[in-house]
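Run 6-phospho-beta-glucosidase through structure prediction, thanks.
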Amino acid sequence: MNKLIKKQRFPEGFLWGGAVAANQCEGAYLEGGKGLTPVDILPDAKHGRQDALKHPTKAMNTEYDFYPSHESIDFYHRYKEDIALFAEMGFKVFRFSICWARIFPKGDETLPNEQGLEFYDRVIEECLKHNIEPLVTINHFDTPLYLMTKYGGWKNRNLIDFYLAYCEVLFKRYQKKVKYWLTFNEINMILHLPLLGGAIDTSLSNEPNQDIYQGSHHQLVASAMATKRAREINPKMQIGCMLAGASTYPLTCNPEDVFAAQEANRKNYFFIDVQSRGAYPSYLNRYFEENNIHLQMESEDKNILKENTVDFISFSYYSSRLTSADPEAGEQTSGNVFKSLKNPYLERSDWGWQIDPLGLRITMNDLYDRYQKPLFVVENGLGAFDQIEEQGIIDDGRIHYLQAHINAMGEAIADGVECLGYTAWGCIDLVSASTGEMSKRYGFIYVDKDDEGKGTLNRKKKKSFDWYKKVIASNGDDLSN
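Sure, done. The structure for 6-phospho-beta-glucosidase is below.
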């Protein structure tokens, strides 16, 4: 591992920090006038979370023993303590999401919920008090549940107007306090987890692909219109898109495998093609034609997309992917919802996610070559089992993972890639989005809570806490353990 660690000067003013999501950390799921979101109806992994993700309407009518999001790690009541710990590490930026259902509990109201806004007033003020730049995700897997049950989620064009009303409130209220905004978290995830990504129940659909891509179009238009409105309110605000990133490799040098990998990457990138270049790519138009997908567009949609592209491109990166044109080739492995073949050259995490630091450099170069816009690495981290020992929580595996990935990011910057910052995912332990587990821990800060919801919720620093503090203080020069 030490061979990968080099001194690498990151740009002056590079934004080091961490990231969380409201639905995975806040808890207080009905406090302060908050409405329900899709995550609030999901049980833990033991009680059928995967089935509930696929059949949300069925899940709504089922009583489960345990809902992990209902208390989560109680950031709602402990945010001051947590932000103080982030400040102690030296965070320059903190990425968090605002829960749409705290601001508009149903999603289609005329007036916002003031109690919800006051909570985020306090969170943002606490960040600014510690000289931490807020990086706000506007919609991170928490479209109000009512918008799914009444309107069918993002496949319904009405959601554009509801989303813009929500954005208008946020942009006006925080225009002088929040510079960096992300319109949708991992916008491409609607293809893979339509409930979380688009509040769409595909189990009720006769044409799930049509509904998913129609929902994607509505989100892309909403993102462009929000970008336009933000610039009208305060031209200094920076608006970014966000991709569940990672390059897909071909299993072999067989040209069919190479093309299969290219197709996989294109399916991933098309969202950013639209948000960064301002138009649907020709390869996607062919896909629509061959798969009988007919997007309903308004006459002004193309101009809206063309004229309101994003300022920067943010993305998550956990592991690379591997594919083949042969459906029988290789062995499948786990990996953040996306299917992938096992790569024999890579180690895997406790959850089977393939560990590929060089893949981050490859992905950053691919994105920058393709778009020539600043990048922002807003999610990267290792989900692993942590053990409390006499001397504390010695999470050397996490440190090694982050060392290698930060080094790879530095190498990409040396390659000429412009990068604004890095926010390690789950900087404090939180509930897993895909499984509902607490045991899949990412944080520099341990939270005393188990998979069954038991524990004191007390916070405890891990070894990686002091390590990351040193990384930030040295602006990435000192990655040593």
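The chain has a mean pLDDT of 95.
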